[in-house]
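Hi R.,

Here's the chain you asked about this morning:
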Amino acid sequence: MQDFSKKNSESKKIKFPSELRFDLVSKDWVVIATGRGRRPESFSQERRRAEKISEKKCPFCNIKAQETPILEYKNKKGEWSVVVIPNKFPAFSKGEFLKQRQVGPYRVMDGVGHCEIVITRDHYRQFAQLSVGEMRQVLDAYHERYLDLMNEKFINYVSIFHNHGREAGASIAHPHSQIIAHPLIDPDLKNSLAGSKNFWKKHKKRCVHCAMLDWDKKDGQRIIFENKKFLVLVPFTSRMAFETRIYPKEHLAYFERIEIDEKDYLAEAFQTVLYKLYKGLNNPPYNFFLHTAPCDGRNYDHYHWHWEILPKTSVWAGFELGTGIEISTIEPEKAAEYLKHI
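And the predicted structure, written out as tokens:
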């Protein structure tokens, strides 16, 4: 009979180059490079490609030349500070009918929806440099437009996202976010909803996100900021280096139901984490987006809405594209420790 105990004891001495971590929500495996991982401070030493910026040529600096604003917030001087306009180059457009048809073996549906742009006034000050009050206005715009768009015809999901930096997909340097309301539920969110629902059923209406947050609060290694209402952490199963998430502490499924006083706490959490990434990683390109229960009329009480922030610290190459498995080049615990002290 083979002696496995000896082999197991010997294997514990081996320092493996990575760990496989199973995400309870998505049911996906991620690879954390523990052996060949980079030092946190090395990310701040990367050179950022400088962009030539001209306010005169910027379409968002001259709002009067744009479409009629849908929504506008003003500053103390009476000038617009945050404005929402229709996207001139929309991926979806408004329609009275949602036509579906077959093309050979394929099912085709019209791209019915709404595309809007949320713009902050200052051409040079990115979100990481905004005050909490300014960030609050941005969140107010997100929320107000969400409430209107979710009730539009054929809309099942309202996607809110922000691209910072050319590498992250921002074609215009002027800070802006996008809102796209559409009839679909994307695969990423669908997987997240399915994982949450399965955990909810298996654990007698226990939220998987709440379970993870409770463990993170006890463990303490990956939490980088918290206030009365929100928690900011580096996920245990980070898909890429310095991924962060903002969670409401209370179990809430729907972003649209956020209370007025909670927005101040969310603005503080957002401003804090974006500044930490800006300062600690030397202004990296990044994307952030909202994950919330869909607005399709179904019950999603098992879900827990949150914001995900993904710095562009890596590029998908052959392995990632071929397998769909992402490799984070630093341990989440080290990333969190680094951000905590910024």
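Residues 95 and 223 are 44 Å apart (CA to CA).

Let me know if you need anything else.
M.
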